[in-house]
Specification:
This protein is of the alpha/beta class and 403 residues long. The protein is built from 15 helices and 13 strands. A hairpin with a 2-residue loop joins strand 5 and strand 6.
Length: 403
């Protein structure tokens, strides 16, 4: 039996005037997703537990069958694992975004122009992170470079609950004054952020980017604090040899912490220009080499939601269907039995450009148990009409495997 999960990050949405009062899932041409939906089970699943922030961390953990109440310590430790940072039990980690802030004189008066630093490349970002480590790194604080705009700060013997830290993708275009670190133990973090701006605003990398008409990645922004994670071994938990295919450090870190195989794909970017065909080929190769379970994560719909790019979000869904899902399902038909789970981790509505906790549509297809689902297409509304609802998202995986 082979199990395939197609995780479409942030795919779910709300009706928007940008698409004539429809959602991207409704507008997108996705023949394979709809075919599997018509022959399988369609419903809604609540992937974000009550009391949890609607992030890709807790939501993907839920889809993989992990109860965040038992195992979640924060987002950044999972990303730190993917970078290869050997964390001590007393370390506290933070996601360190390279962001673009506007140029008002006072730091707190600046606007969040771009949470991803103008789509900065990994090579450019490494130069900036190396600069921060050289000038601001210490025995207490260390900077580690990751991928694109996503990096890590490690605080030795830090406070795991320092105060309120806001994800930068939650505040596009807003004045940052109300969103800078707040709490009794965030002063050092805020000082590092302000110093990072002074170091980066005139850095040669950013001067070159500006001359090319690109946005500068001119400040560090800290959020997603946590401590060393402890996830149950996926194979011991499910009896399945599993692989993760993603461009995103978070998902790679989850795989590493769960002792799954994390597969790197050349040209996988986390955006709509990602290497869809490379992810397809990697998934098929993992099945060929004997893996029972393959989880392909595509970040593109989420990034398009954060950027309010309606047409690109629709296109991202279509490319997932065409370039990854269709050929992988066609390959899997060579096996006696296989099952497919398709779902987002959380919604990223175009109109608000950030995540919500609203339940998301899911599709479960079993090649040996085709049935009439009652719908011919899957979107937020048709999923609701079936009446199928999974309240505890972390039970979805066991349900899927049992099907």
């Amino acid at each position: 039996m082979k199990y395939f999960v197609m995780l479409c990050d942030g795919m779910a949405d709300e009706p928007t005037e940008k698409l004539g009062g429809k959602t991207p899932m409704t507008v997108a041409k996705k023949p394979m997703i709809d075919k599997l939906a018509s022959l399988g089970e369609v419903g809604l699943v609540k992937t974000v537990q009550e009391g949890m922030k609607p992030g890709s961390d807790v939501a993907n953990l839920a889809v993989l069958g992990y109860n965040s109440s038992d195992c979640y310590t924060g987002r950044s430790p999972l990303e730190a694992a993917s970078i290869g940072i050997d964390l001590k039990d007393t370390d506290v980690t933070f996601r360190c975004n390279l962001v673009t802030l506007s140029d008002e004189e006072n730091y707190e008066d600046k606007h969040m122009v771009d949470y991803c630093g103008g789509d900065i490349s990994t090579a450019e970002a490494k130069e900036l992170i190396d600069c921060l480590e050289k000038n601001l790194g210490s025995e207490e604080f260390k900077f580690y470079s990751g991928v694109a705009y996503r990096h890590c700060l490690v605080w030795d013997n830090g406070n795991p609950h320092p105060g309120v830290l806001t994800p930068p993708h939650d505040i596009p275009g807003r004045v940052i004054r109300d969103y800078i670190p707040k709490g009794e133990d965030t002063t050092k973090l805020y000082e590092l952020m302000k110093k990072s701006y002074e170091l980066l605003k005139d850095h040669p990398v950013n001067k070159k980017r500006i001359s090319q008409g690109k946005r500068p990645a001119n400040s560090a922004w800290f959020w997603g604090e946590g401590t060393k994670p402890l996830l149950a071994d996926f194979e011991k938990k499910t009896g399945l040899k599993g692989s993760m295919i993603s461009a995103v450090d978070l998902l790679k870190g989850i795989a590493i912490c769960a002792n799954m195989t994390s597969v790197d794909v050349d040209g996988a970017t986390g955006y709509i220009d990602t290497n869809f065909e490379g992810k397809r080929d990697a998934a098929i190769e993992e099945f060929k080499r004997g893996q029972d379970f393959v989880y392909v994560h595509v970040e593109a719909p989420d990034e398009c939601g954060h950027r309010a790019e309606a047409e690109n979000k629709v296109r991202a869904i279509e490319l997932i269907d065409e370039k990854i899902l269709t050929p992988v399902v066609e390959f899997l038909r060579g096996y006696d039995d296989f099952a497919v789970l398709i779902c987002p981790d959380h919604p990223t509505p175009l109109d608000i450009q950030t995540h919500t906790s609203t339940p998301v549509p899911y599709v479960i297809y079993d090649s040996k148990n085709e049935q009439n689902s009652g719908v011919t297409t899957v979107n937020e509304e048709t999923a609701k009409t079936t009446g199928n609802y999974i309240e505890k998202g972390y039970t979805l995986m066991d349900y899927f495997l049992s099907k």
